[in-house]
Structures are given as structure tokens and as C-alpha cells.
Amino acid sequence: MTAQDRFPPAAEAGGTVPGVASIAAAVRLVHPAPALAVTALSGTLGGILLAQAGRPLDERWLATVAAVAGSQVFVGATNDLVDRSRDQAAGRLSKPLAAGSLGPGAALWVASGGLALQLAMSLRLGSLPLLLGLGAVVSALAYNLWLSRRPLSVLPYLVSFGLLPLWIAAGVDVSLERVALAPVLVAPFAAAAHLANALRDFDADAALGSRNLAQTLGRRTAFNLAWALAMAVGLGVGAALIIGGAPPRGSLVLGLIGLGAVAQGFRDADRLWLGMLVAAVCWTASWALGTG
């Protein structure tokens, strides 16, 4: 890796300290908002599962959260590495590789570090968490490499997010029966998340010939479906908790916060995407508290 890979001319010429600029670019590389949301909901779910089992947060919880965080770093970095030329062609200057604020060599180091963290932490947890985590990250890698531009682009979202609650439960050593229904609840929300995310780059993807699911459905249909699916998940989970008995007040409050976050997304895809990140954390906690 050359010095230009680490600190490209664009970063040096701007008057910013190269090291600071590169760190900021590396943070943007890993898609920090969804990475933090997935890591936060994983930590929340793992913590609640432990609390309901009468156990404190422990080393297994910490290793599980760290493994998920590593996977998010790897997935985000490889996404931008694979899409570098497409991002440049679309003029996506918010992408550090396309803007030249980070070199591909440095991005490869970031991706490798994320994967190394996931594997190192997973090996401490045992074979089942290791395999579930690898299944989730391989599915996401398939999205980055091939499926993101094809009509089956939603499939990796269904697989990776369906495996996530099982991965967390296995990581903290709680029976998988505790989260057995979670993949069913996650599926429509994962599909909505994919559509909302794809809609944010709809025009650029169309110009580059992408045929992902959002392009196949069309902008308006994809947006309406994403919003409706996300709202249906929130309303359905809330109704199920209420029918099953009086849920804790905290569970209801979190559910309503998530519902409001999604509801405000009717305005545009960016608002819907951000609202779904908030709802994912809130509804994970709400569901875990209400079914404990």
C-alpha cells in the first residue's frame, strides 16, 4: 500500500491533517448510521435476554456485540470497495473512495480489520455463534458483490437480518427458542429496509443500469411498499403484545417511539430510512421486554 493509498492528494491539499482526514473518511466508509443501529439493537437484545435469564452483562455479551460491530465494519467497507467505480460514475462525493479522501488500500485494511474482529470474538463464543455470524456476513457479502443490482436484491437482507437474533441469542448463550419467532417478524421489516435504502440512490442506480428490486417495482410502488411493510410490522408486533397480555409500560413506550419514527418517513426515502434505524432499536427492545 502506497502513501497515496493512505493519504490521497485530495486529502493533503485541503489543509486538513492527513491522519484526521483519513480517520473521518474511514468512519464514513463503514456506513456509520446503520452500523451503529445494528450494533445497538444487537447489544440491546443481548442485554435484555441476559436480564430475563437473571444474568448480568458478561464477557459473552461483550464479545457478541464486538463481533456484530466487526461484521458491520467489514460489510460497509466492502460495499464501498465493490461500488467504487459506480460511485465515481454517479458522482457520489459523500463516499470517501469515490471522492478520493481514502485510498482502496486503506479501505481494504479497514474491511480486513472488521472481519478479523468478528472472527476473533466469535471464536471465543463457540461454533454455533461463529457459524451464524459467518452466515450473516457471507449473505451480506453476496449482496455487495452480486445481488445488490439484481431483482433478488432483497434476499440477503432477509437472510442476514433473519440470522441476527439467532446469532445474538447463541452468542450470549440463551436458548434459541427464546427468539425462534424473531426471523418471521424480521423478514418484512428487512424487506422494507432494503427498499428504503435502495430508494435513496434510485436515480443514480437507474442511470448505471441497476435492476435491484426497487428499480423493478418502480419508485412509487417501492416507497409505498416499504412504508406499509414497516408500519405493519410495528402495528402487528404491538397488537400481538397487547393480545398476549398487558405488556410493560416501557415496552409500549418504545413501540410507540418506533412507530412514530417510521410514520414520519412518509415524506421521503431518506426520512423513512432514518426512521427505520430508530424503529429497529426501539422495536427490538420493546419485543424483548414484552415477551420476557
Give the arrangement of secondary structure elements.
Layout lengths: L2 H4 L2 H5 L4 H12 L2 H21 L6 H24 L1 H7 L5 H4 L4 H22 L1 H19 L9 H17 L10 H18 L2 H6 L5 H5 L1 H25 L5 H15 L5 H22 L2
Helix pairs in contact: 4-5, 4-10, 4-16, 5-6, 5-8, 5-9, 8-9, 9-10, 10-11, 11-14, 11-16, 14-15, 14-16, 15-16
Give the overall form: globular
Strand content: under 5%
Number of strands: 0
Q: How far is the N terminus from the C terminus? A: 50 Å
What is the CATH superfamily of the largest domain?
A: UbiA prenyltransferase
CATH topology of the largest domain: Tetracycline Repressor, domain 2
Uncertain spans, ≥5 residues at pLDDT below 50?
1-16
So what's the oligomer here?
single chain
H and E string: HHHHHHHHHHHHHHHH
Mean pLDDT across every amino acid position: 90
Cα gyration radius (Å): 19 Å
Major β-sheet profile = none
CATH class of the largest domain: Mainly Alpha
Q: Examine the secondary-structure arrangement and name the CATH architecture of the largest domain.
A: Orthogonal Bundle
Number of domains: 2
Secondary structure category: mainly alpha
Protein model, in words:
This protein is mainly alpha-helical and 292 residues long. It folds into 2 domains: 1-173, UbiA prenyltransferase (Tetracycline Repressor, domain 2, Orthogonal Bundle), CATH 1.10.357; 181-292. 77% of the residues lie in helices and 0% in strands. The chain contains 16 helices and no strands. It has helices at residues 3-6, 9-13, 18-29, 32-52, 59-82, 84-90, 96-99, 104-125, 127-145, 155-171, 182-199, 202-207, 213-217, 219-243, 249-263, 269-290. Helix 14 packs antiparallel against helix 15 (249-263). It starts with a helix and ends with a helix. The model is unreliable at 1-16 (pLDDT under 50).
